[in-house]
């Protein structure tokens, strides 16, 4: 007898087609039967050792978070309710060009310092891996939800070239090609870049194109955080489209927003650019989060020249009065490339987390508010905080536009990604609320997307980008990564005031046929594993 039958569910199967009522049978971690309109037909209903009454609930494929920063959280926090409770059954990590494999001892220490604001210092993690394959093996030891990995181009460059702003030598470029190839062979699904973060930002297009050729040869995709989301946003999007067309590589645009005042109302221009490329045969997808503020580290807004050489060099420059003055001028007058070419507005920069608990008074305030309270210029406050906390502060950047968010999420190649940073006392609520916020706010309350459309954006589309042949749909033979939610009540519990509140209306989540959320509570199941690239 099979393990589980989910009775009388309203199945939204991920295809975008209308929902239907069915009994769904799960056994051995897979969907083994779907009996449509079973009760009304009066047929012999499937039986199983356990029956779950799903009356009034939608059954959908588990959600795929196409842009996650859980690289260490998956190892640190077996509970991981921040994602599991949202119905997320697969996260794509290794984002923005910086993560923890492949590394050597030197590079690992540098990367840990550089992205402590994203993932914590890592002092509580046993880094017993150095290669992509070894990291994926570590995930296979048991995690809350599944994870796929992108080879981080910035980490690869740090390993082969260092943190200097210069072109790679032919030998160094060969080494980077080798590292990307090894990562793909060991199971990565593609390559990411952070082209406003050091050292990835120092790569010219020719270098990136060569690495994308390697990715394409394995059937992977390129996922860039491109060079500007502000003053040069459209040019940066065009650059990525042209680069990947030249390389013959699929393109997935990370957190594809149009932010800052210069881009208010300009989402249609981005979508027209993408439509033109798609019509010409380009293979493009994108992800967004359903909120207007962004989230990153405070150090990320610094100009690239100030970040050259790695974290210790940044701290030395900040400590030097003359150099700090140049940094300030770039930020406040010129428009730092780290702040997307737009002069910084300190009243839009809210501190969301710090590494040193003694600095907790900064959290929840903008830099401008903290500066006003201290009777000093905001640059003085920001500089002092960066030095005192050794570049660890994270920020919310209130620079988005609701009309852009809605326009982009409607596009036919759109997928969902939280870009959720789980660190800090006051993280962005998207880390805990992205997927229920889509379903509750943008589907039920606003009607921006139909329920069937939205579920397809969050399930089958990302599964197709990841080339996963047996995930992303409710189909017989598919892996039983499933979520059951109440369409009348599903909602994000997280807010900017209380960002760590779990969602409502999602009582059941299964990963590989095992309940990780049951009756609205996290079980002790560690059913997730590394999801490796499907060979081309």
Automatic annotation (TrEMBL):
It comes from the Bacteria. Residues 51-517 form the Amidohydrolase domain. Keywords: Hydrolase. One of its GO terms (cellular component) is cytosol. InterPro entries: Amidohydro_3, Metal-dep_hydrolase_composite, Metal_Hydrolase, Metallo-dep_Hydrolases_sf. Its EC number is 3.5.1.81. The keyword Hydrolase applies. GO terms for molecular function: hydrolase activity, acting on carbon-nitrogen (but not peptide) bonds, in cyclic amides; N-acyl-D-amino-acid deacylase activity. This is D-aminoacylase. It comes from Streptomyces chartreusis NRRL 3882. The gene is dan_1.
């Amino acid at each position: 007898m099979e393990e589980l039958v989910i009775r009388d569910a309203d199945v939204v199967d991920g295809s975008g087609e209308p929902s239907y009522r069915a009994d769904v049978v799960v056994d051995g971690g897979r969907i083994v039967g779907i009996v449509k309109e079973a009760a009304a037909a009066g047929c012999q209903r499937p039986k199983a050792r356990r029956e779950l009454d799903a009356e009034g609930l939608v059954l959908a494929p588990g959600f795929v978070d196409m842009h996650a920063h859980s690289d260490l959280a998956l190892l640190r926090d077996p509970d991981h309710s921040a994602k599991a409770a949202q119905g997320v059954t697969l996260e794509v990590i290794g984002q923005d060009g910086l993560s923890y494999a492949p590394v050597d001892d030197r590079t690992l220490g540098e990367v840990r310092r550089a992205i402590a604001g994203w993932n914590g210092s890592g002092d509580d993690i046993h880094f017993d891996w150095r290669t992509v394959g070894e990291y994926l093996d570590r995930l296979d030891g048991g995690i809350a939800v599944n994870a796929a990995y992108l080879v981080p181009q910035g980490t690869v460059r740090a390993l082969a070239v260092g943190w200097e702003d210069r072109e790679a030598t032919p030998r160094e470029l060969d080494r980077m090609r080798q590292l990307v190839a090894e990562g793909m062979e060991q199971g990565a699904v593609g390559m990411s870049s952070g082209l406003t973060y050091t050292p990835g930002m120092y790569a010219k297009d020719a270098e990136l194109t060569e690495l994308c050729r390697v990715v394409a040869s394995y059937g992977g995709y390129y996922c860039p955080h491109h060079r500007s989301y502000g003053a040069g946003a459209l040019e940066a999007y065009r650059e990525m489209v042209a680069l990947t067309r030249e390389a013959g590589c699929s393109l997935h645009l990370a957190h594809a927003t149009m932010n800052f005042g210069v881009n208010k109302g300009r989402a249609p221009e981005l979508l027209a650019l993408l439509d033109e490329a798609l019509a010409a045969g380009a293979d493009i997808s994108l992800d967004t989060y359903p909120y207007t503020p962004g989230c990153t580290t405070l150090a990320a807004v610094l100009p690239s020249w100030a970040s050259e050489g790695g974290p210790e060099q940044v701290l030395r420059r900040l400590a030097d009065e003359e150099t700090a003055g140049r940094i300030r001028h770039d930020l406040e007058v010129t428009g730092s490339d780290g702040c997307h070419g737009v002069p910084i507005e300190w009243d839009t920069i809210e501190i969301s987390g710090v590494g040193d608990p003694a600095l907790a008074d900064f959290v929840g305030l903008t830099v401008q508010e903290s500066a006003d309270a201290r009777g000093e210029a905001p640059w003085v406050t920001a500089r002092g905080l960066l030095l005192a906390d050794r570049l660890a502060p994270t920020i919310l950047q209130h620079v988005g536009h609701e009309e852009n968010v809605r326009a982009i999420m409607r596009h036919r190649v759109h997928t969902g990604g939280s870009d959720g940073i789980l660190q800090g006392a006051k993280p962005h609520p998207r880390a805990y609320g992205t997927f229920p916020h889509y379903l509750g706010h943008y589907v039920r309350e606003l009607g921006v997307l139909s329920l069937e459309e939205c579920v397809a954006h969050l399930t089958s589309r990302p599964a197709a980008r990841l080339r996963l042949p047996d995930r992303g749909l409710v189909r017989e033979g598919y892996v039983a990564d499933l979520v059951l939610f109440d369409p009348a009540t599903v909602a994000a519990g997280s807010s900017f005031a209380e960002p760590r509140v779990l969602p409502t209306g999602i009582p059941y989540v299964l990963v590989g046929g095992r309940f990780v959320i049951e009756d609205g509570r996290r079980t002790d199941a560690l059913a997730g594993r590394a999801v490796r690239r499907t060979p081309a």
